[in-house]
Amino acid sequence: MKKLKNLPAAPEGRLFASGKRDLPAAAIERWDGSIRAASQSGENTITIFDVIGEDWWGDGVSANRISAALRSLGGGDVTVHINSPGGDMFEGLAIYNLLREYEGKVTVKVLGLAASAASIIAMAGDEVQIGRGAFLMIHNAWIVAAGNRNDFREYADYLEPFDKAMADIYAARSGMSVSDVQSLMDKESFIGGSDSIEKGLADALLSSDELTSDEESPAAAIRKIDAFLAKGGMPRSERRKHLKALGGMPGATPEKDDKPGAVDEVNPEVINSLKSALASLGE
Q1: Residue extents of the structural domains in the chain
Q2: CB 12, CB 116: distance < 8 Å
Q3: Beta bridge partners of 109
Q4: Contact (Cβ atoms closer than 8 angstroms) between residue 150 and residue 158
Q5: What is the rounded distance in angstroms from the CA atom of residue 259 to the CA atom of residue 216?
Q6: From first to last of its 283 residues, what are the pLDDT tens digits of the chain?
Q7: DSSP for 53-93?
Q8: Domain covering 19-213, topology
Q9: DSSP letter string over 197-224?
């Protein structure tokens, strides 16, 4: 049965039309998408091994997907495996609410990284287990936006209550003061396995034999390239164009809605452009 009744509900919201979400480079750089659970015995297991919310590839973990998975379990206990760099804060808050309200016991296992929105999802667990080498990453809401000073004041005012709500959730789960949590969020803090337990954000360490490493998914690799290009200063539209030219998931075919598919050959000009952008990171 559900044990944690004192966790606050998360507010609902959506990103304003002029804002865009993008993954923080620090989270992508620390994300090892190859980490998996050594065993997924039992049917009542949900995996969160991708970004939170749909991205421009059309992938990602959505609240609709989690809701459908929970409905299929009929109130039975569930284990949630997480290895995610985060993503859409609003989608993460919605998933947190779904797990918080679920009638069965929720055991969360952080296998590699639960960053940003994924760390909020982890807080909904009645029990949170974390790998010794795994991390939680907590920070303030992070968006990409454009506009004048008045627009940015509006953006900050809009995001502030969501930052406060996330701080309340971390504080309720851990027993830390809200001010201490806000300080960690302001610093964009990566919190390791043992430290997560000391701070009350997790309950126990996973044993090493519960983890394994597989080939990193093409989606994870593409997102890392995208993050590196962004760090090198390449505009979002250019990144999309070049990644589309490279092709999407191996073995995939182009979709009707213009999502990238695989290609047999890669344009040398695209490769040179990518190399130049990546090389600029070391300058």
Answers
A1: 19-213, 232-282
A2: no
A3: 81, 129
A4: no
A5: 21
A6: 455 558 999 988 776 555 566 677 788 888 988 898 887 666 799 999 999 997 666 678 999 999 999 999 999 999 999 999 999 999 999 999 999 999 999 999 999 999 999 999 999 999 999 999 999 999 999 887 888 999 999 989 999 999 999 999 999 999 999 999 999 999 999 999 999 999 999 999 998 878 887 766 666 666 667 766 766 667 767 777 766 666 544 333 333 344 333 334 445 555 556 556 555 544 4
A7: S--TTS-SB-HHHHHHHHHHHTT--EEEEEEE--B-HHHHH
A8: 2-enoyl-CoA Hydratase; Chain A, domain 1 (3.90.226)
A9: HHTTS-SEEPPGGGEEE-PPPHHHHHHH
User: Tokens 């049917």 belong to which residue?
Assistant: 43
* Two tokens, residue 93: 């808050």
Residue carrying structure tokens 């000073």: 149
